[in-house]
Amino acid sequence: MNENSAERPTKAIVDLDHLRFNYTSIKRFIGPEPQVMAIVKADAYGHGANECSKTLQQVGVKHFGVALPEEGVELRKGGIAGRIVCFGNWPGQEQMIIADRLTPVFFQIDRLKAFDESAGAQGIVYPVVIKIDTGMGRVGVPFGSVGEFASEAAKFKNIKIEGLMTHFSTADQPQNNLTDTQIRRFNKAAEIFQAKGVQPKYLDMANSPGAIVFPNSRSSLVRIGGLLYGLGGDVLPKGFPGPELKAVMSLYSKVSFIKRVPAGTTIGYGASFVTKRDSVIGTIPIGYNDGYRRGLSNSSNVLIRGKFAPVIGRVSMDWTTIDLTDIPEVNVGDRVTVIGNDQGHRILAEDIAESLNTISYEVTCGISRRVPRVYVSDQDR
Ligand SMILES: *Cc1c(COP(=O)(O)O)cnc(C)c1O
Is the dihedral of CA 143, 144, 149, 151 positive or negative? Predict the structure, then answer.
């Protein structure tokens, strides 16, 4: 596990074999036709965008999706050669986008015009994607304005609209007909563009739940984020058939300190926990600055020697206290599984998310940069 014992033992292990497994499993489930755009924004949901993208490039992924042009620049530096679509971009970033052959997404005609002028100044015709708001209600050309937008956009000479995209808001709910409405509107928007002489090569709608739950949203390209990282548990509907997935990130630490205390001892800030019996208390070097959130105080578990140890007291910035009274065999230096498997038991990012009333994406994105990512793969050994 490439552990350097001179470092704090808190580490995130990113299993690149599981990432490959998930990609293959998703491909098998959705069939050979749709290509997968790997969504690696936000540092691949906290897993490390460069390493994950390189691994996915090795297994044949040719499309990558990021939130910011800056993220795309990092991927190029890391040797990613495929198409990199940036879902957002800001005035003044035109040169950065063009210099690194990133594919920008537009939904405002004035921004598209400014980009057309930048491309024109370099004497090139540059590929762009237009995002349509078919019901997410966040960003995109409003569905009702697609005709007007398409007429204007078709006039620009230095851009080529190579893609149209939309984004689903409720694709994890099979019974909600908003997704069907979004699909219908998107297909209509594509017809409107085609009627103006624009023939986009890529028409993509589906995110992770869309690709699994709504086969008619797959088209030629699907944009998959969470499923690649094995985070299906709370973005796919329960009991619905889906691909087999393996969690890519685990999070480990080690017991730093153990003490015996009598009943009535207060533990941590605010004395929010008071021992009810003579207890064994362990301390582990992980806290909310690592992304092990304060909301987990008195309401989570870790695994040690194959057994659950409850988090007691407040999670603080750098330390978390756990009750080891029922696991007397634990020693200082024992491995603590914060997320991952231990002797047949497991804690998923989804479980931590449930305690925090959020989704697993926020948990893995939130594991801070103070926690080193250690990449493992049998292929390297
Ligand atoms: C984040 C994102 C996705 C991926 O969503 P998942 O649920 O993680 O698959 C797809 N498309 C867009 C536009 C996104 O911003």
Answer: positive
